[in-house]
What does this fold into?
Amino acid sequence: MRSKIRGTAERPRLVVFRSNRGIEAQLVDDTAGRTLAAASWLALKSFKGDKTEQAAEVGRLLAANARKAGIETCVFDRAGYLYHGRVKALADGAREGGLRF
It folds into this structure.
């Protein structure tokens, strides 16, 4: 799957990493090999709720960081995870924050 998805400076790749404790996401420009914006569950200050709500909040935080970097659209790379649960919540949170994909 990842070999088919490429991110550019205009439309970076939104990469998701999910662990047992939390979730992280970043916007990557594959042509330059740079991370343009990132968000992690560790950046959330005193968050209360389950991991699905945590993922949605990380998605909103990523969208805010992307807006600061001047990014409006991206390509979603779920990294082999099923589009369900926390991965879907992160995507929905990023859409709520204004990212288009």
